[in-house]
Amino acid sequence: MSNRPNIIIIMTDQQRADLRKSCGYELDTMPFLDEWAKEGMDFGRAYTSNPTCMPARVSMFTGRYSQSHRVRTNHNAGDALYTEDLLDVLKKEGYVTALFGKNHSHRKPEEFDVFRICGHLGYEGEENRTPEEKAFADFLRETDHMEVHSPSPGGLTVQHPYRNVSDALEFMDRMEGKGPFFTWISFAEPHNPYQVPEPYFNMFPPESLPPVRGRKENLEDKGERFVWLRQTWEKILGENIEDRILRARSNYLGMLRLIDDQVKRLVEGVRERGLEDNTIIIYLSDHGDFAGEYDLIRKGVDLPDVLCRIPMIWRGPGIRKGGRLDEGYVSIVDILPTLCDFLDIPVPFGCQGKSIRPLLRGEEGHSREYECAFAESGYGGLYWKETDHLDLLTEGASGNMKNFDCLNTWTQCGQVRALWKDGYHIQLDMMGNGYLYRIEEDPAELHNLWEDPACTGKRSELLAALASEMMKQTDLLPVPHYRYRVKIHPKGFWHEDFSADDPGVRKMKVIGADHMEEEANAEKNPFRKK
Predict the structure, then answer these.
(1) Considering just the CA atoms, what is the radius of gyration of the chain in Å?
(2) CB of 312 closer than 8 Å to CB of 286
(3) Where are the alpha helices (DSSP H) in 273-415?
(4) Number of other residues whose CB lies within 10 A of the CB of residue 235
């Protein structure tokens, strides 16, 4: 037990993947992270399961997609369906668990052994212990989730990332000699409200920002929901919308540098405590942000690459020093099965992710397992229209028309599915509306190739791959109550041959009949909702 690695997951909230110099961005937003990633694995094709906070976070913990774990919106935590999640698994293995930062998952903070939480607006569980922290909390509450046009008060030490790292280092000091620990350091930034103190406020001035690739003129080709989203922001932000978006972008980039400095402080703290050689550190985000692309901010509709592609970096024992890897697709649902693989323990039944340990170790011969990434969004039903006479105030998406919840009835209704493969991105909704983009040549996804005669063969190929992936991710829960055994590769693979008679496979996955020899009622089903 004492040889088990410590595990630290650093999660940001709403961090777009491509706004780093190592990813080709013009500005040097996260210099420490870029350098640190060279000694680990920095995945260039990492994707979220759903570009929404809670569904993505539940996916990370359960290894399941949102249509399976049932948390399809930010308001369905109590509906989470799974057998065991990451917290269950690690506690069974003797880990001391801790949460520092934003939760917004299906787990209550008190289910961690140690916790100290924060949110976005200052009074969402924070322990504001000093006058400066209380003043900062009051400031956050007054932002109404919008961008701020002057430096935030209180300086660096009242900012939540700084406090999150301080809490984590204090926890590690208390853990000395007490066995392995799991720490989820969950920054609530760079999510809105877009605010940042000096010196970060003026680090990336609005007037000096690189131009975005997609503009509002491209929105009609992106679909009517994109047009609706821009029109809504025009109502909220008013005639100064362009200047306000620029300020939001400037603050967002400043927040990235602030986070970068705190990741550096955390990593150096781990190193100073002699923990680095036995600690796996994972850096990722739950989803992205438009960050000005298409003249939009925050998030919202469909499954564009800027919202679905996320940073994901692994570093620690057993992980090769490969730096940037742009071959192979990985997902947020792969976190749980990969950590189970590192610990040599069974993956919970119902987990839909796969182990990416072969990629982390540089093993050959597994390329087919990482040939695509899959994402989904939507809570169902038809699309809402203007003729339905539902407005922002009635729906609750805005309380005063000075702010706007971009995740609402209009942006989240329906069903949308997407697949990334071979450098392409295909998206399809429940009405048959399709989009096809070649990401490498068109990273802003401005040219829809769906009707392009030259791409008919590729479209058919990717539609078949999308249909295949949707069937692969059909939920295994509830299990058959009589006789039938479920055969699943112990690492979550689909393309590698193996024998179901292998004792290890039977122990890990082929378990349906072991628990249900006769017809049973739901109360006896061990794979019920928690």
Answers:
(1) 23
(2) no
(3) 305-308, 335-343, 357-361, 392-395, 409-412
(4) 12
pLDDT digit string, tens, across residues 409-457: 999 999 999 999 999 999 999 999 999 999 999 999 999 999 999 999 9
Which tokens is 263 given? 């990741």
In the chain, what percentage of residues exceed pLDDT 90? Answer: 87
DSSP 8-state symbol, 309: B
Give the torsion sign (CA, 43, 49, 54, 59): negative
Rounded Cα distance, 329 and 371, in Å: 6
For the stretch 521-529, contacts whose Cβ atoms lie closer than 8 Å and that sit 24 or more positions apart, written own/partner, are 522/478, 525/478, 525/479, 525/481, 526/83, 527/83, 527/349, 527/350, 527/477, 527/478, 527/479, 528/478, 529/70, 529/79, 529/80, 529/81, 529/82
Parallel, antiparallel, or unpaired for β 372-380 and 414-421? antiparallel
Q: What confidence tens digit (pLDDT) does each residue in 205-225 have?
A: 999 999 999 999 999 999 999
Say how far apart CA 166 and CA 148 lie, in whole Å. Answer: 25
In whole angstroms, what is the distance from residue 101 CA to residue 118 CA?
5
Calpha distance 219→264 (Å, rounded): 38
Nearest-angstrom CA–CA distance, 32 and 428? 38
Taking Cα atoms as reference points, which of 424, 433, 441 lies closest to residue 372? 424
- Measured CA distances, 481 to 488, 516, 520, 526, 528 (Å): 17, 5, 6, 11, 12
Residue with tokens 């975005």: 212
Whether the bond into 490 is cis, omega within 30 of 0: no
- CA nearest neighbour of 511 among 498, 497, 525: 525
Going by their DSSP bridges, the two strands 46-47 and 330-331 should be labelled as parallel
Residue of 406, 331, 413, 431 whose CA lies nearest to 373: 331
Instruction: Cite the beta strand spans of 269-311 per DSSP E.
Output: 279-285
The CA-atom distances, in angstroms, between 176 and each of 100, 266, 410 are: 18, 16, 50
Which SS3 state, helix, strand or coil, does residue 284 take? strand
Torsion of CA 435, 440, 446, 447, to 10 degrees: -60
- Is residue 271 very low, low, confident or very high in pLDDT (cuts 50, 70, 90)? very high
**Residue 448: exposure state from Cβ atoms within 10 A (0-12, 13-18, ≥19):** middle
Omega of the bond leading into 190 within 30 degrees of 0 (cis): yes
